[in-house]
Amino acid sequence: EVQLQASGGGLVQAGGSLRLSCATSGLTFDDYAIGWFRQAPGKEREGVACIITKDGGSYYSESVLGRVAISSDNAQDTVHLTMNKLQTEDTAVYYCAARKVPLIGTHYFFAKGLLRDAVMDFWGKGTLVTVSS
After folding, report:
1. What is d(CA 26, CA 121) in angstroms, rounded to the nearest whole number?
2. Which residues pair with 32 in a beta bridge?
3. 22, 90, 123, 124: most buried, per Cβ within 10 A?
């Protein structure tokens, strides 16, 4: 059974930082891209960042570019999302999800489509991030 467990959410003041983790099990980690998505109250789900675990290629949405870093610990089958300079607009439930990387095609277009469309193979439960002013 594939499982993704997101953790690390909490309450933080604007300008602060948080590190979210996504622990995976039941899948061949190197075969997958892991993405982070978020959904704020009353808003649609939004792609934040994703990483191709096999080669470490990382991709970000424009709204978080420069403030967020995604990394993978392939020994622990875990992906981390470090968020800096948090803003109240970052308040949301954050989800991690996995999608198998296709054997053909460029990772750039695959990752951009993944963040845009959020069509994933497996989803974890979310972790709430609340940024106070």
Report:
1. 13
2. 100
3. 22
d(C-alpha 53, C-alpha 58), whole Å: 9
List strands edge to edge, sheet with 3-7: 3-7, 18-25, 78-83, 68-73
Percent with pLDDT over 70 in the chain? 100
Distance CA 84, CA 65 (A): 11
Cα–Cα distance between 31 and 54 in angstroms, integer?
7
Q: Quick one: tokens of 45?
A: 């789900």
Q: What is the mean pLDDT of residues 11-38?
A: 97
The b/e string for 82-96 (b: 16+ C-beta within 10 A; e otherwise) is: bbeebeeebbbbbbb
pLDDT digit string (tens) for 23-33? Answer: 999 999 999 99
Model pLDDT, residue 105: 83
Structure tokens at 1: 């059974």
